[in-house]
TrEMBL record:
<feature type="domain" description="Acetyl-CoA hydrolase/transferase N-terminal">
    <location>
        <begin position="7"/>
        <end position="210"/>
    </location>
</feature>
<dbReference type="InterPro" id="IPR026888">
    <property type="entry name" value="AcetylCoA_hyd_C"/>
</dbReference>
<dbReference type="InterPro" id="IPR017821">
    <property type="entry name" value="Succinate_CoA_transferase"/>
</dbReference>
<dbReference type="Pfam" id="PF02550">
    <property type="entry name" value="AcetylCoA_hydro"/>
</dbReference>
<feature type="binding site">
    <location>
        <position position="378"/>
    </location>
    <ligand>
        <name>CoA</name>
    </ligand>
</feature>
<dbReference type="GO" id="GO:0006083">
    <property type="term" value="P:acetate metabolic process"/>
</dbReference>
<protein>
    <submittedName>
        <fullName>Succinate CoA transferase</fullName>
    </submittedName>
</protein>
<feature type="active site" description="5-glutamyl coenzyme A thioester intermediate">
    <location>
        <position position="284"/>
    </location>
</feature>
<feature type="binding site">
    <location>
        <position position="374"/>
    </location>
    <ligand>
        <name>CoA</name>
    </ligand>
</feature>
<dbReference type="InterPro" id="IPR038460">
    <property type="entry name" value="AcetylCoA_hyd_C_sf"/>
</dbReference>
<feature type="domain" description="Acetyl-CoA hydrolase/transferase C-terminal">
    <location>
        <begin position="316"/>
        <end position="460"/>
    </location>
</feature>
<dbReference type="InterPro" id="IPR003702">
    <property type="entry name" value="ActCoA_hydro_N"/>
</dbReference>
<dbReference type="InterPro" id="IPR046433">
    <property type="entry name" value="ActCoA_hydro"/>
</dbReference>
<dbReference type="Pfam" id="PF13336">
    <property type="entry name" value="AcetylCoA_hyd_C"/>
</dbReference>
<keyword id="KW-0808">Transferase</keyword>
<dbReference type="GO" id="GO:0006084">
    <property type="term" value="P:acetyl-CoA metabolic process"/>
</dbReference>
<feature type="binding site">
    <location>
        <position position="398"/>
    </location>
    <ligand>
        <name>CoA</name>
    </ligand>
</feature>
């Protein structure tokens, strides 16, 4: 069947108010860049005429500004799941103008197939190649594309010539069978392949193909500083010590690392550390640092869901595609983040916290308990199932006015039952096999910033001698102090009791 080529505006015209749309990609990698801009314009025009226009937006993870930014600025988002990191969309969500539900990324595909998200009217997929036989070759991010292609009523393809067709073969695409007859995912090493190179659909389902030529909208890194470098070194020291003590197999374990500056610095430190052998990644996002370490031979193989690298780095990868084809596989997030595979391979998870409480409960998403930052992403998929789960963060935020360590987190993403090790630039708190009281001591002594150590010791003393020392009237005292005076260092526990 001949493919029907059209403009982005013609494609956007097919989308109606209230439609639910599944978009390709994972992070800005592999996200579509033309049709959502045209949908945003269509929404603005409708709103100018007093007509409603909003769509449900389901993606793999965050996207680029052309998708989340354009739709947010047009106020065209009815609901959004499972992860976002765009400032305009974040503002819309926190203003209560777009419904957002934050989900573990490994579960999104099955949630769609189970029908929990309702009907999906459209799938919009970025491809580097599409054939009249209905074969689709994805680009730099896989996300939930295989499920979208299976489940959506109709498909629109952005055929992006920025990405070479030779990407074919880098993807390993598998939609797992659903319960009650689900079988195991046959991945026993990070480099194993279990699926197909392409997505195959009924060509009659493809309503149109839009030709584009756009780079992924991946932002740069702030670069490392003293704090992130120290965190990185502490993580590397911790893992090399575990290896020395025989608590990590001598062949080492596959690593998962989150996104952002801290994750980048941690990987750089691991690459440099003499006590860490060459290693593999079983992770979701492959960042610049992974590519660099692959070229020095420190990273032997990386399994991920996306190649979220800067434009310069992507050009470098494309110039040396044969080398990277052998060392990188991109999988659907259901597989890259699979709890089953994470537990089987024994991954070491390394993610970032906004705040941590004295017992090791972690908040990665809601600032002061009520303002959504990005979302839980894949951090829960890995943390809960890791061989060793690590959270790191700077000990303070906002120039020291916020302590990352508080008596009780204002929102919980990862509970003390899953969080094993906390690392800041101050040091390492190993929480494994410790009682709540012992965890509290380890965190205060090793991770808390000196400006807050005394205040948190005072809290611990006030909280008394019980199994989980806690004083309800003061548990959020530091948060309330920040809202009152703008600086948690002004905390006076006596005031909490008088309130
Ligand atoms: O804001 O830049 O305006 O000052 O939060 O903090 O320290 O730069 O760290 O960029 O790595 O982000 C948890 C948000 C950390 C991220 C989070 C402020 C701080 C700064 C960012 P400013 P940093 P990062 C793989 C795994 C959840 C998902 C996940 C995240 C800004 O890592 O979204 O792990 N993780 N996914 O000042 C108020 C606090 C704060 C605070 C920091 N306690 N209160 N603000 N900040 N601590 C990815 C995927 O799944 C795709």
């Amino acid at each position: 069947m001949a493919l029907r080529f059209m403009t982005a505006e013609e494609a956007a015209d097919l989308i109606s108010h209230d439609d639910v749309v599944g978009f390709s990609g994972f992070t800005p990698a592999g996200s579509v860049k033309s049709i959502p801009v045209a949908i945003g314009e269509k929404a603005k025009a409708a709103h100018a005429q007093g007509k409603p226009f909003k769509i449900g937006v389901i993606t793999g993870a965050s996207t680029g500004d052309s998708l989340d930014g354009s739709l947010a600025r047009a106020e065209a988002v009815k609901f959004r799941t499972p992860y976002q990191s765009n400032a305009d969309l974040r503002n819309l969500i926190n203003a209560g103008k777009a419904d957002y539900f934050d989900s573990h990324l490994s579960t999104v595909g099955q949630t769609i197939r189970y029908g929990f998200l309702g009907k999906m009217n459209w799938g919009i997929i970025e491809a580097c190649d599409v054939t009249e036989q209905g074969e689709i070759v994805l680009t730099t991010g896989v996300g939930i594309s295989p499920t979208i292609c299976q489940y959506a009523d109709r498909l629109l393809i952005e055929l992006n010539s920025y990405h070479p067709k030779r990407l074919r073969g880098m993807h390993d695409l598998l939609v797992v069978a659903d319960p009650p007859h689900r079988r195991e995912i046959p991945i026993y090493r990070a480099s194993d392949r279990a699926g197909a190179e392409v997505i195959k659909v009924d060509p009659g389902k493809i309503a149109g193909v839009v030709l584009t030529n756009h780079a992924d909208e991946v932002g740069g890194f702030a670069g490392s500083d003293e704090v992130t470098n120290r965190i990185g070194m502490n993580v590397a020291d911790f893992l090399s010590n575990e290896l020395r003590k025989g608590r990590i197999p001598s062949s080492f374990l596959p690593l998962q690392s989150g996104v952002g500056n801290i994750a980048n610095a941690v990987l750089a430190a691991l690459g440099e550390h003499k006590g860490i052998p060459d290693f593999e990644m079983y992770t979701e996002v492959i960042q610049d640092s992974v590519i660099q370490l692959m070229e020095t031979g420190r990273i032997k193989f990386a399994s991920g869901c996306s190649l979220t690298v800067s434009q310069e780095m992507l050009s470098h990868v494309y110039d040396n595609l044969d080398f990277f084809h052998e060392r990188i596989v991109l999988r659907p997030q259901e597989i890259s983040n699979s709890p089953e595979v994470a537990r089987r391979l024994g991954i070491v998870s390394m993610n970032t916290a906004l705040e941590v409480d004295l017992f090791g409960n972690v908040n990665s998403t809601n600032v002061m308990g009520r303002k959504m930052m990005n979302g839980i992403g894949g951090s829960g998929d890995f943390t809960r199932n890791a061989y060793i789960s690590i959270f790191s963060c700077p000990s303070v935020a906002k120039g020291g006015k916020i302590s990352a360590f508080v008596p009780m987190v204002s929102h919980t993403d990862h509970s003390e039952h899953s969080v094993q090790v906390i690392i800041t630039e101050q040091g390492i708190a190993d929480l494994r096999s410790k009682s709540p009281k012992a965890k509290m001591e380890a965190i205060i002594e090793n991770c808390v910033h000196p400006d807050y150590r005394e205040a948190l010791r005072d809290y611990a003393n006030l909280a008394g001698d019980t199994h989980t020392p806690c004083t309800l009237s003061a548990a959020f005292g530091m948060h309330m102090e920040f809202e009152r005076s703008g600086d948690m260092r002004n905390i006076n526990w006596g005031d909490c009791f008088r309130r």
